[in-house]
């Protein structure tokens, strides 16, 4: 084998160690020795992240002359490139053609699987199954690293309480407790215990911070909130991911307290590093440094200086660092030590990945065949999908269906491979996904299935154009709406049951896909109404990346299975549930509103001084004149083909001291006709405290499998920290007093117990 050692390793022997290393960071002798060799320009080069294009470009810029820039030592990492051979070529340029031979970070957005696409994250979170989520991340890492990638721009852990915001699809929903568990599971899955393992990659917590609170649900918009809300409700998942060891953080597009996150020193240094002790590196979002010009923070030199001084280490695509930092150093606006420190953090990441030992460790051309799209990976995708589905309604117990039924399968998403993967799946191939039609045929070969499209996803051509930027997702048929409908009704004529696959196309949610009207488009509403008029049982398999407004549909005599965008095994997983091979067990992780006017909406709301009356109308109460305060579908809600009964809620102690844990037990019985899994949930209410408390907030859950007729005692432990909150001084404290707990199958759980913290 040729000697492919980076040149700098050869000089290590003569390098002197032990130079001053910034703050807490542990000195890595190899990195310190290398830093000593580097010119200011070479250090600035490491802070530059480019994309040669070919992937998804989410800004208006794509990098140019990438190869020349690498050769010139002006690039620290690339993203949007994959394949072991291509990555080897890129590393070869970096290692052999530059003065110091520093290998590249190779990033990518692997949000819900690499080639084996899992359900969109909001769907996946609806499984409430942390082992499963960790396994999906582990498989994503195995596949991505086989294809040359060593750094993932995931997990996205932004709390989202506004379903108009399309990126609610990319996270775990509204709740900081659940969101924190998911964040940890994903970091564990991507990084595992050892980053030098060739099947692991660096995790990036994003988008730091508060991106999910964009005003009006409009993407990239301003955010503004109190510190106590930030600390209690929005920051916990980022912190959980960092505590779990995430090596990198991505700053968000939005401003926080009036300063864009990418240039916000309070966020990136005071909080992230000084308070939370984060030692990894921070990368900007796509051109978010440059975008600070539009935010009104100055010219490119000013915003670049602001960012690096705030604690941002790497500049994604915009090249503001590359083109202005030297000048800022010369003018005394940025210190060389600040640049050295940012560079150090990036070199440490490369060191931890083992790239200095072997820059080609992710370039094994035998791996893709061995590790990508294996049967085992696809099996996990099928399991993940079926566990993500949430049953909203089972009219006259229509479900599960018989495998010999005569089925009219209709709807614009019933035979659409293009929409199975969901948003942010640029590494997946939609054509490899199993359509719903194919899945039904696979699982029930003896069923008699007649298919008809029935309607377009939407008839609005200008809307379709916006949805189709990444490919054909919303295709409008040549046929008239009337003709499409007639075909569906014809297919229904001889059917025992109608299954209508309706909802959102993949790119109707996701980045830059905010909607002000989150109902099912009118073209499909018409289809659904007409189908119910046939008098036949109708099952809606409802696809979306976000909570929708489905007031009308829920009132119709239909069954509804929410299937999100299920991923590569979509059709098989849907069929597993429709035919009862898997009993649905998912529960909502974001509240579904009655109408857009209720937004923002979430389960952990506070009481007001004037709570809405439970009975007759009274003036001067906190309520709407035209709709109840309660959502359409509550956080934690989801039905099963069986039923569960909760009894005998007990606490291990009625009084506890500070620092003590308490056990909560409940008997759960499967009282219905099918075996099934129930997600037992525990909510807490701190009755009196120094900051107005939420009426109830999730503090524990467990997935329990029960055979029909079986009872299990479920024990959930409330740890001392679960009673704590950030008070007005932002100290994390538990205040003495009474607590109420509620346990059940959703956030309206009525079984109640109390205890006192002394
Ligand atoms: C998104 C990020 C993503 C980045 C790189 C941005 O537009 O906000 O989530 O990681 O693009 O693709």
TrEMBL record:
GO terms for biological process: glucan catabolic process. Residues 678-747 form the Fibronectin type III-like domain. The keyword Repressor does not apply. SUPFAM superfamilies: (Trans)glycosidases, Beta-D-glucan exohydrolase, C-terminal domain. It catalyses: Hydrolysis of terminal, non-reducing beta-D-glucosyl residues with release of beta-D-glucose. Residues 1-22 form the signal peptide. Its main location: periplasm. It is found in: Periplasm. One of its GO terms (molecular function) is beta-glucosidase activity. It is an enzyme of class 3 (hydrolase). One of its GO terms (cellular component) is periplasmic space. Keywords: Glycosidase, Hydrolase, Periplasm, Signal. Its EC number is 3.2.1.21. NCBIfam families: PRK15098.1. Belongs to the glycosyl hydrolase 3 family. This is Periplasmic beta-glucosidase. It comes from Leeuwenhoekiella aequorea.
């Amino acid at each position: 084998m040729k000697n492919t050692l980076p040149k700098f390793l050869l000089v290590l022997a003569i390098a002197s160690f032990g130079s001053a290393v910034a703050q807490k960071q542990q000195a890595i002798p190899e990195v310190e020795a290398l830093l000593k060799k580097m010119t200011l320009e070479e250090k600035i080069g490491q802070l530059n992240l480019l994309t040669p294009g070919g992937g998804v470009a989410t800004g208006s810029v794509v990098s140019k002359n990438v190869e020349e820039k690498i050769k010139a030592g002006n690039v620290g990492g690339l993203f949007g490139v994959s394949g072991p051979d291509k990555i080897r070529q890129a590393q070869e340029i970096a290692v052999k053609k530059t003065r110091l031979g520093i290998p590249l970070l190779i990033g990518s957005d692997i949000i819900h699987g690499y080639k084996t696409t899992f359900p969109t994250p909001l769907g996946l979170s609806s499984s409430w199954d942390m082992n499963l989520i960790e396994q999906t991340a582990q498989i994503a890492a195995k596949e991505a690293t086989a294809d040359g990638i060593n750094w993932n721009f995931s997990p996205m852990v932004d709390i989202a309480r506004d379903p108009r915001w399309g990126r609610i699809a990319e996270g775990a929903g509204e709740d900081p407790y659940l969101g924190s568990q998911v964040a940890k599971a994903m970091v564990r899955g991507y990084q595992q215990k050892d980053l030098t393992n060739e099947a692991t990659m660096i995790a990036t917590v994003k988008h730091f911070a508060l991106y999910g609170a964009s005003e009006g649900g409009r993407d990239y918009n301003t955010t503004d909130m109190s510190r106590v809300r930030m600390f209690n409700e929005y920051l916990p998942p980022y912190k959980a991911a960092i505590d779990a060891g995430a090596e990198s953080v991505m700053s968000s597009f939005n401003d926080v307290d009036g300063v864009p996150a990418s240039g916000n020193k309070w966020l990136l240094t005071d909080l992230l590093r000084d308070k939370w002790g984060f030692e990894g590196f921070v990368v900007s979002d796509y051109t978010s440094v440059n975008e600070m010009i539009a935010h009104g923070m100055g010219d490119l030199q000013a915003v670049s200086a602001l960012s690096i001084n705030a604690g941002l280490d790497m500049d994604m695509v915009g090249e503001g660092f590359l083109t202005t930092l030297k000048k800022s150093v010369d003018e005394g606006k940025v210190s060389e030590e600040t640049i050295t420190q940012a560079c150090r953090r990036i070199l440490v990441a490369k060191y931890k990945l083992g790239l200095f030992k072997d820059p080609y460790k992710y370039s094994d051309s035998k791996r893709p065949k061995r590790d990508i799209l294996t049967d085992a990976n696809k099996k996990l995708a099928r399991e993940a999908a079926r566990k993500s589905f949430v049953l909203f309604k089972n009219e006259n117990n229509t479900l599960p269906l018989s495998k010999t039924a005569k089925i009219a399968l209709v709807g614009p998403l019933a035979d659409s491979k293009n929409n199975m993967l969901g948003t942010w799946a640029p590494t997946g191939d939609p054509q490899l996904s199993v359509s719903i039609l194919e899945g039904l045929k696979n699982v029930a070969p003896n069923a008699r299935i007649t298919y008809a499209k029935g309607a377009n996803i939407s008839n609005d051509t200008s809307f379709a154009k916006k949805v189709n930027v990444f490919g054909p997702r919303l295709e409008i048929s040549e046929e008239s709406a009337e003709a499409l409908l007639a075909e569906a009704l014809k297919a229904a004529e001889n059917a025992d049951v109608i299954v209508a696959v309706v909802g959102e196309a993949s790119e109707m949610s996701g980045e830059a896909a905010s909607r002000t009207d989150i109902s099912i488009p009118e073209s499909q509403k018409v289809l659904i109404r007409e189908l119910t008029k046939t008098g036949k049982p109708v099952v809606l398999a409802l696809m979306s990346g976000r909570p929708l407004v489905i007031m009308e549909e829920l009132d119709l005599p239909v069954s509804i299975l929410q299937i999100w965008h299920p991923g590569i095994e979509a059709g098989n997983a849907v069929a597993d549930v429709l035919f009862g091979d898997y009993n649905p067990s998912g529960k909502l992780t974001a509240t579904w509103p009655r109408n857009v006017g209720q937004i923002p909406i979430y389960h952990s709301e506070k009481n007001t001084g004037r709570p809405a009356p439970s009975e007759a109308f009274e003036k001067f109460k906190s309520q709407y004149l035209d709709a109840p305060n309660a959502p359409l579908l509550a956080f934690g809600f989801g039905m099963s083909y069986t039923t569960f009964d909760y009894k005998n809620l007990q606490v291990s102690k009625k009084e506890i001291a500070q620092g003590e844990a308490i056990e909560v037990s409940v008997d759960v019985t499967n009282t219905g006709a099918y075996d099934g899994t129930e997600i037992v949930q525990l909510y807490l209410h701190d009755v009196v405290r120094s900051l107005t408390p939420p009426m109830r907030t999730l503090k524990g859950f467990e997935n329990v499998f029960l055979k029909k007729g079986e009872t299990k005692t479920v024990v959930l432990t409330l740890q001392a920290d679960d009673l704590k909150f950030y008070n007005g001084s932002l100290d994390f404290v538990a205040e003495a007093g009474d607590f109420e707990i509620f346990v059940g199958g959703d956030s309206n759980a009525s079984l109640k117990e109390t205890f006192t913290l002394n």
